[in-house]
Structure formats: C-alpha cells, structure tokens
C-alpha cells in the first residue's frame, strides 16, 4: 500500500503545506496577533515589503491572511477533534451488540444524531451568540455539534461491521469484556476510516468557520479571521479586488487541500483493503 | 446434424495474459453441451465471450458461427438484436441478477419489449403465459412481486423466463443451479430440457457439478486453466477419461467411472 | 407496509422536534443575559425593567412560558418581535418571499446540474473527460459559497452589468425582476452543492453499473447506452435523493450567508438582525421553524426514497 505512489495524497499535502507552513512560521516569529495598523499605507499595491499589498487599515495583507488561515485552522481542528472524540465514543456505545435489538442508549444516541442533522451550524451559532455573545469557544462548539451526527453514524456503522465478525464472538466466548473488545479489536480497525472522516470533516469545518465569521457569528476580533476579513473587504470588490480574492482563495486552497488529501487517504485505504491478507 | 452454434478456434485475451486458449465445439439443436472444470478455468469467460459481453480490456478472436453469422464481426446494434432474442443467458447469482427496484413482471416483459412488436396487452398475456410455464404462477408469485419477495429458486425461474421469452435457439446457463437446493435444481433442469425437446433449443450448460453434467449433458467439454483438455460425448468422457486431469476430476467426485456407481436411493416426493 | 414505517418515522421525528424545541427554549431562556436590559440599556430604571419583564411575560415561571410559546407556535401565533413590535409571523412570512424561492432555485440548480454532470462522468469513466470533470468538481466543492457569490457579483454585476448586484424588488413588481435578483445568489449557493451531487451521482452510477442485474439486462438485449439510462440511472438516483435531503440544511445555512452577501431581505437577514439585537422571540421562533421545516422535508424525502426502493419499504428501521 505504501509502495504505491499516491499522487493525490501528495498533491493535497503540498497544497496544505503551502498555506499552513508560512502561517506557522509567522505565528512562531510574530505571535498570532494581527499586524499593526498603519494608516499611512492603506490599500498599498503589492511591493517587496508587502508582497500582496495592504488592507484598508494598512496591514500587510499576506501576513493578515496567513494569520487568519492559522486561526481558522485552529478553530476547525478543535471543532473536529471534539466531534471526533465525542462522536466516536457515542458511536461505539450505539454500536452495542449488533445482534440484539437496539437498547435505550442506542435509541437516544441515534436520536441525537437525527436531531443534529436538523441543526445546521449557523442555527447553533445563532442560538449561542444570542444567548452568550460571539466567542471562539462558541464557534468551536457550533462546528463540533454540526459534525457530531455524521461522526456517530459513521463510527456506529463501521463498528457494527466489525462486531458481527466471528472472531468477536470468539473473543466474547473467551470471556473478554465489551470494553476490551472495543479497545483491542474495534478501535484499531476503524481508525483508518475515522482518519479519512476527520480529514473531510476538516474541509467542511473550515467552510463553516468562514461562513460563521463572515456573518459575525464566529470568533470576535482582535483575532485575525478570513471570513470577517471578507465581510469587511466586500465593499472593495470593485476597486481593490485583491482584498476579496486573496482571503477567499486561501480558504479555498485549504479546503481543497483537505478534500484532495482525504481522497488520497481513502484511495490508499481502499488499496490496502483490496490486497489479499497474508 | 447441422450445428446452431459452431465455435472455431475461439480464444480470449486480457490485457496481460490469455484467459482462454483456442477452443472449438459445436452446439446442436435440442442438445446440451456441458462445460466443466474448476473455478477460474475460464468457463464464465467462455459464456461471456459467446454473449459478446466480455468486460472491457478482454479481446476475443477466432470464429463464432451462429446460423451463418459470425458473432465476432457483429456491430453493437446487431448484437443487441441477437442477445435476448436468439441467445438467452441465465446467470449464477439469482440474488443479485434481478433489478431490486422493478417488478418481476415488468422485467420479464422487457425481453418482449426489446425484441417484438407486440402491444402492451399482448406482452402482458405473453408474460403471464411464460410465468405459467416456468411454474411461477403455481408458486403463487404475482407479476407485481419484487425480487426481494421471492425465494432463490423463484428468482432463478424469473431469470429463466426472461431468457426463454423470445424462444432463443441457444441458452447459455452459467452455473444457474449452483445456488439452489437439490429439489429446485432438478425442477429447473426439467424446465430447460423440456424446452430442448419441444423447441429444439440448444444449451451450453456451465457447471462444476459433475453429477448434473453426467445426468443431463449430451456432450462435455473439460476446461483447465483456459485450455480445453478433453471434449466428447458425455458417456465416453465419463466412462473412459483420456486426460489425466479429467481422470483426477472424476476420481475426486462420486460420478466418474473411477468409482462403482452407487445404487440410487428411492426419491420421496414431499407433498407440500 | 410503507405506511407503518413512515408512521414510525414521523412519530420519532415528533419526539425529536419536542426535544429540539426544549433545547431552543433553554438556550434562549436559561442562559445568562436579560433581554429587557438589552432593550432598555444598562442604565434603565428597575421599575421600567420590571414593567418590561411583565410585558414580555418574563415574570412567569419557565414551564408556563414554554407551554405558552409552544402552543402559540403550533397555532401559528409566534409572539411579537421585541424590536419591531409586530407579530413575528408576519415578519417571517414577509421574509420567506425571497428565502423560499432562493433555496428552491438553488436545490433545483444543484440537482439539475449535478445529476447530468455525474452521469456524463460515469459514462466516460476513466477517460480524459471524466478526469477533467472530477478535477473541476473537486475545485467547486471547495469554494466557500459566499466568496463565490462575491466574485460572481464582481464579474456579472459590476463588470458585465448583466444581473443586479444586490437587493430584491419583491414579487409585486413582476416575476422576472424578482427572479433576476435571485439568480446569482442561487447559482453561488448551488455550485458547491452541485459539485457534491455530481461526484455522488458518478460514484452511485458506477456502483450500480457494476451490479449483476445490469449484465442481466445486457443479456436480455439492452444496449450499453439504454442499460445505463433506463436500468442503472433510476436505481442510482435513489441514493442521490437521500443526499439531497442531507444537503437541505447545508443550503439553509448557505442561503443565510448568501442573503447577507446580496443584501436580500430574507429569513437569513432577519435571523442575523435578530441575533445582533437579541430579539429573542424572532430567533427562537425562526430557528424552531427552520428546524421543523428541515425535519418535515427530511421525512418527505425518506418517504419518497422508500416508495422508490421497494426493499426499504418493508424493512423495519
């Protein structure tokens, strides 16, 4: 599987690195606060000192956008991490004993998953912002809650396909407890699938983050943010198209990177599955 | 007797290797030719080559002479007029060979729709008659049933009805009784042999069940790794296998000459 | 038999809606923050706060408030907006005039473009056309819809002057001006979804084409082309319908954002204004309404899928 050249995986990885590596470099050397406001150099055209020019506040556009990408990435990653951990745990519980009829806890968990499908992140964020005001943690929660139902379903389905195998029955007969079986047999087997799922969730989470912060339902200033930048630069779409093009393209490259990377992961996973077992 | 299907030096290549080495045989009206051999010997490839349904990347060469036309020279539209009308095929897997979202009556009627100018009501009548002949009506199966509501044997009857609808001169049956229990199996074979007698239909029966082959086939062709190792009348092949592979194959089963024939047990008909 | 499954599903959804309403109510009423303070400002006198509390019904116990709200919601009485002081229902009905057509149009475009593109890609599987289409779809799938909206305004409105850049003239000024105002937002909203639909359609069709019953149809005399269109496509479309049901909440989210880009006076704009001004009756009822609509449409879609796929109709969920 590893011997096979997986160009998709590489292409996705390169796209992600192209955006995230410089972002991390800037964060490491300058910290994650927004670059200083410099009213003398507003709307500067690209130059050596400002490779992409400056924004309406005289901030270096490239630095601002990369920092925004870093923040979006952090929020998306935390949201997806939360959804993955909670969703995997709930999905494993809901998998239960596939032979038995669904228990109370399974019904409740699947109910949560069904309910979650009807609450798009913008509604969750709207509720949270109305009640508590805008915050990064609220946005992370909204993204996590949105990702939860899919995570529960996928984990449950994958776990059930393992749990119906004969060797699981053998383990049970040998006296292994459910927890041991989940830890030693189920989790390692579904881990690759969960990784693929997390990758495509990251792409969705980045899109959600951009949308929420564009609407003002995301993390509040002063953290640099691509969606918020787009909202404030929108009026300049005609006179300074660069201001709108660059943040949007950056989001797109990140999302594209994760989508392609996820496809590559899935391909190599499928290839690994197709190879005969030794 | 003139052959309805005359295969001369047919071989099949995939992109990387030969699947079927040159093979020649004749199919005569009303007769059953069995193709046997272990799995992977190229039996199904032969069937698909005869139907012109080889998967992409596979190439057939040689000559398949069917009532004067060479199959390998046919264009796709010409093929579509022959498949289902002159050539019927029944497949191995009755569970998946039917479209799960369409009623079986409509799927059987498709063969008429594709090949005959019959009106809707005539097609309905023909479909009904065909379901009668194949024993589906007796089993209480309605035209409006969906495949998942049927048993494996009933689905295989539906497939047979689809293949027999236009009274083809050749039926290709690829392991079509393998998934069935013994009783259903013999009922299905009976349906096919009756057609051979009444309509002079020729059958190419692919089966690894040597008992079945010995009971019903007139001619046998033994394949191993895509090579025809032995062919001839069933009795002579079974009584005096010439090739070591055939001998081994027969020795492993209970049906060859290598063992003394068992006394057949009396059959009790279940009255259900 | 389909009826029983659907009935069970509907009753399940009613329970879920009840839970959903509790969550929405709790978020709006239990979390810290006093709407009266927000409305009157921090320096308001305690007397006027108390009076406003009474006027808003905030001095009654929570269960009573919940019961009052939900029975009102079920009877179409959604209370009054704190900010506009008009019935919430009239606000929502007014805003639906642009939101509903926008979502409907976007769904139509997404399916109308995504399905044929997916079929073309599947029919040419592995060829240059397929690879090109797949690459393009991967790109479109990754575009943030609201940014696409901005770029399209730049191109089609500000540069080419083909379509209006923002605003909505309303239906009373004629059908075409209204549609013209919605077409660009709908396209922006539909493109990423169409890309997802097309990719899904492609893999569903490829999967269906590999099934045994396609070979049966070919053996029956169907040509490659007619087997694809008449046998494989209807079957392959069923999962695409399920996907469309899942895409609906995504379109709702997208419509809220895209309305904001184009300054369309829709439900999204109403929701955002209400959130910013803490207009609780509007947020509470609008969210509840959207959630209900999504659930109802999901059930309808599931019923349609079950009706189309006889295997699902009989299996117990």
What does this structure look like?
Chain B: Pfam families: ABC_tran (PF00005). Chain B: It is a peripheral membrane protein. Chain B: Its main location: membrane. Chain B: Belongs to the ABC transporter superfamily. The complex is a heterotrimer of chains A (278), B (272) and C (317). Chain A has 278 residues and is mainly α. Chain A contains nine helices and no strands. In chain A, 49% of the residues are buried. The mean pLDDT of chain A is 81. In chain B, the strands form two sheets. Chain B has a six-stranded mixed beta sheet, sandwiched between helices. In chain B, strands 2-1-4-5 form a four-stranded antiparallel beta sheet, with helices on one face. Chain C contains 13 helices and no strands. Chain C has helices at residues 2-29, 35-40, 46-56, 62-74, 88-123, 128-141, 145-159, 175-209, 212-220, 224-261, 267-276, 280-308, 310-314. Chain C is globular, with a radius of gyration of 24 Å. The interface between B and C is medium-sized, with 30 and 22 residues.
Main beta sheet of chain C, described?
none
Order of helices and strands of chain B: EEEHEEHEHHHEHEHEEHH
Structural class of chain B: alpha/beta
Which spans of chain B have pLDDT < 50 for at least 5 consecutive residues? 256-261
The radius of gyration of chain C is 24 Å
Number of helices, counting only DSSP H or I runs of 4 residues or more of chain C: 13
**On the 0-100 scale, what is the average pLDDT of chain B?**
85
Elements of chain C, N to C (H/E): HHHHHHHHHHHHH
**Record field, number of beta strands of chain C:** 0
Q: Biggest interface, and residues per chain?
A: A-C, 43 and 50 residues
Question: Mean pLDDT across all residues of chain C, rounded?
Answer: 84
- Largest beta sheet of chain B: what is the strand line-up? 6-7-8-3-9-10
Put simply, the count of helices of chain B is 9
Helix content of chain C: over 70%
**What's the end-to-end separation of chain C, in Å?**
12 Å
Structural class of chain C: mainly alpha
